[in-house]
Write a structure and sequence with these properties.
heterodimer, A: Alpha-Beta Plaits, 2 domains, four-stranded antiparallel sheet, 5 helices, 35% helix, B: Arc Repressor Mutant, subunit A
């Protein structure tokens, strides 16, 4: 999946879409009918909430809807990695990196180290072999930047 | 929280639950019941296990993951700083507390090509709007900072999130 950063939204969000995106970035309740409860709080019907969520996912406004796991609390590991892909090989190196299911996120950035991606594995000792396989597949040096300390994590971007 | 679910590591059913939901929660009226049916357990057990994982921090939240560009957040900068090792931890806490910083970490330097040890993600609608944010970080770091850079994201190449392979040989049906 490649999403141009500078593409214009194809369908503008209306106020209800914005309320949904904002409310549901914060979380869905753990009750048997969570969408009905969320819809009530938003003042819309459950069917409308579900239909709008499907549309927001289909349009790419949302990339995913569901649980966000911090797998490190369950023995796994996230490792931020960077590499330099020379311009003629950029697309090929990026595609080779993306082919690994362990690669959770991947961004092109403005630096000599132009590819930055996060490797996510279920067991901490699986990280190093995954990085070695990625290095072998891409033919570029992969620099790991494992976190030494987490000061803050909470991404909330209102629509 | 039930005492049965306070263990620090997920059991085979937790792992199966993570695997079944990591790509998304069903968009149906009773999503936890749908997942439960898939796993061959009860709806109440799915809810209870998700709540237990949330209490342990394994589950951050259940919610919407936006493509931030599509919400108008077009200037997404990974600001990186070379900060005095003796002062980075106290300063990192203060940088992480800034309202426009979404993630803030201490990471290893990779000398000689990478002197930066503090990473803080900032988000704005335009790069111009991000300039005062970055200046605010610089002021907070003061003379503890020797060098800095901003790596703007140009393109999202992948954003699937966690994708663990199917759990190993443990079969729920055998329970």
């Amino acid at each position: 999946m490649t999403c141009p950063a500078n593409s214009s939204p194809t369908t503008p969000l209306d106020d209800t879409d914005r309320s949904i995106v904002n409310a549901l970035q914060r979380g869905l309740p753990l009750v048997p009918r969570p969408y009905a409860e969320a819809a009530r709080a938003l003042g819309i019907a459950e069917d409308e909430l579900l239909a709008r969520l499907r549309a927001l996912l289909a349009a790419g406004v949302l990339t995913r809807f569901g649980p966000l796991y911090q797998i490190e609390r369950a023995g796994g590991r996230f490792v931020l990695c960077a590499c330099h892909a020379p311009a003629p090989r950029l697309e090929a190196v990026a595609a080779a990196i993306n082919a690994f299911p362990e690669v959770a996120h991947h961004y092109l950035r403005t630096h000599h180290l132009n590819l930055w991606f996060v490797v996510a594995v279920g067991q901490a000792d699986a990280a190093a072999p995954a990085l070695a396989r990625i290095a072998a597949a891409t033919g570029v040096e992969i620099l790991p930047f494992p976190k030494e300390r987490e000061f803050f994590v909470n991404l909330y971007l209102p629509a | 929280m039930t005492p049965a679910n306070v263990s620090p590591l997920p059991d085979a059913i937790d792992l199966a639950l993570i695997h079944a939901t990591q790509a998304g929660l069903p968009l149906t009226s009773a999503p936890y019941a749908a997942v439960a049916e898939q796993l061959g357990i009860g709806e109440a057990e799915v809810i209870q296990r998700l709540a237990a994982m949330q209490a342990r921090g394994v589950l951050r939240r259940i919610g919407a993951v936006p493509n931030h560009y599509r919400l108008g957040w077009r200037a997404n900068g990974m600001t990186v700083w070379d900060v005095d090792d003796a002062r980075i931890d106290a300063l990192g806490e203060r940088i992480g507390a800034l309202p426009f910083v979404s993630h803030c970490y201490r990471r290893p330097r990779r000398l000689p090509q990478w002197p930066y040890n503090l990473f803080a993600m900032v988000h704005a609608h335009t790069r111009a709007e991000a300039v005062p944010q970055i200046a605010r970080i610089a002021v907070l770091l003061g003379d503890a900072c020797r060098a800095q850079d901003v790596l703007w994201s140009v393109r999202i190449l992948k954003k699937t999130g966690l994708r663990l392979p199917p759990a190993g040989p443990v079969r729920l049906e055998a329970r």
